[in-house]
Write a structure and sequence with these properties.
Elements lengths: L18 E5 L3 H12 L3 E6 L14 E2 L10 H5 L12 E2 L5 H14 L2 H15 L2 H12 L5 E2 L3 E5 L2 H13 L6 E4 L2 H10 L6 E6 L2 E3 L2 H14 L3 E4 L2 E5 L2 E4 L4 E3 L2 E4 L5 H5 L9 E9 L13 E3 L4 E6 L2 E11 L7 H14 L8 E9 L6 E4 L6 E5 L5 H16 L5 H4 L9
Parallel strand pairs: 1-2, 1-14, 2-10, 4-18, 6-16, 14-21
Antiparallel strand pairs: 3-9, 5-9, 6-8, 7-8, 11-12, 12-13, 15-18, 15-19, 16-17, 17-18, 20-21
Length: 425
């Protein structure tokens, strides 16, 4: 970025400011640090890598306001077998990782019971209703409103049967603040001209959106944070405490508040406090071209629902993303997942060649597919925000705002109660 970012107006003097340490510099951590900073906190952000490569920056860039129904649902359980990777679906349960995914799956089944699911559904829908306005406030505060493209997305089906089934499913679904309509014949014609595989039907969502470029978002957010007086430290955290952090290199940092936003690593950091966070690394894969690609820059994200794949055109290239793989975060990537993506890309005739860059990252996922946002019981200076699964990008700004309100004593207890980790006992 070029130019000098102005300091926030009416910010308190350094001696008057409360201090916070945010542990984890993904999209949740970064937006939380910025939200705290905007409300008067002196913030230190700790990131484990100079150039973050976590799931926060490897996603499809989709602001998924339409996903108001948690994935842990009765419908998901009924359709589980059809989604398995070995049957052509996107759900991978590697046999070598059974000790990781089996306990998580049993908890997921419990969360998908009708009564549990309905409570989670109401909580998630309420949070998602605030997502797009929070994003608009966030990019405005960054001074980069062009980073948000609130122009919806498209869903396509390749057979008449899947088109009829898919349309009926969306018509019966709660899509929150997002709405959709069938594609016109002219719109279908445009997609058929771009896609090699037959396109039998499709819908266009309004009220959802995308980030213009995740890399630029990360760079812009970091630059704004530092320009506004934030301290960014690249280091690995060994332990967190009540108002303190110990780094692997032996340094100790203290603050009025510590917020753990470390994705799948958050559970281990909070375990000494007796906090139960049954999190799993839900790993996703993508392939991405460079910026020069034969695909219109103004096309919205497109979901090929028969293939469980989403394709997004960013300023920095075109990305095809898919796969839900339950495994340990540190397990080696499976090349078969990228090969599946290449098969879909070739079948659709997408301009993503063999030179596309492969990526794999771990979504931090809890069994009920709700995020974890709250305070650590018994601690006055320790809280958390993580576990946003497929909705980390979507919910990042509203999560940051809620954390800032919570730590300032302004958040309504009832609004955050469904997201507290106490729900897991």
């Amino acid at each position: 970025m070029t130019g000098v970012m102005p300091k926030p107006e009416n910010s308190p003097s350094a001696s008057d400011r409360r201090s916070a340490i945010v542990v984890g510099g993904g999209v949740i951590g970064t937006t939380t640090a910025l939200a705290l900073q905007r409300t008067g906190w002196a913030v230190t952000l700790i990131e484990g890598e100079e150039t973050p490569r976590a799931a926060s920056w490897g996603n499809a860039g989709h602001i998924a306001t339409e996903q108001a129904e948690p994935i842990a649902s009765p419908a998901m359980v009924r359709g589980f077998a059809k989604r398995l990777f070995w049957r052509g679906g996107a759900l991978a349960l590697p046999p070598r990782e059974i000790a990781t995914w089996l306990p998580f799956s049993l908890r997921l089944l419990k969360a998908a019971r009708p009564a549990n699911y309905e409570r989670a559904h109401q909580a998630l829908a309420g949070l998602l209703a605030q997502a797009m306005p929070a994003w608009q406030r966030h990019v405005a505060a960054l001074g980069a409103p062009e980073l948000l493209r609130p122009h919806g997305h498209v869903v396509l089906w390749e057979t008449p049967k899947s088109a009829a089934r898919g349309l009926a499913s969306w018509q019966a679904a709660d899509t929150g603040t997002a709405r959709f309509r069938p594609l016109t014949e002219a719109e279908l014609g445009d997609w058929r001209a771009r896609i090699r595989s037959p396109i039998a039907g499709g819908i266009r969502f309004e009220g959802s959106g995308q980030i213009a470029d995740p890399t630029r978002l990360a760079e812009t957010a970091t630059a704004r944070f530092v320009a506004d007086g934030g301290t960014r430290i690249v280091a690995h955290v060994e332990t967190v405490g009540d108002g303190e952090v110990r780094l692997v290199d032996g340094r100790r940092l203290s603050a009025d508040q510590v917020v753990v936003t470390a994705g799948v690593a958050s559970a281990a950091l909070l375990r000494p406090f007796g906090v139960k966070a049954p999190i799993i690394a839900e790993r996703g894969y993508h392939l991405q071209t460079g910026p020069e690609v034969d695909w219109p820059a103004d096309l919205p994200p497109v979901v090929f629902e028969d293939r469980s794949m989403i394709v997004t055109r960013f300023a920095g290239g075109m990305r095809a993303a898919s796969i839900v793989e339950f495994a340990r975060a540190e397990a080696k990537p499976d090349p078969a997942k990228w090969n599946r993506l290449r098969h879909h890309i070739a079948a659709l005739g997408l301009p993503i060649g063999e030179d596309a860059r492969p990526w794999m990252g771990a979504r931090p996922t809890l069994p009920d597919y709700l995020p974890a946002i709250g305070r650590v019981p018994g601690a006055t200076g320790l809280s958390y925000a993580f576990g946003h699964n497929h909705l980390g990008l979507t919910l990042a700004p509203i999560t940051g705002e809620l954390v800032a309100a919570m730590l300032s004593g302004n958040a309504m207890a009832g609004q955050l109660k469904p997201f507290e980790l106490g729900r897991f006992g």
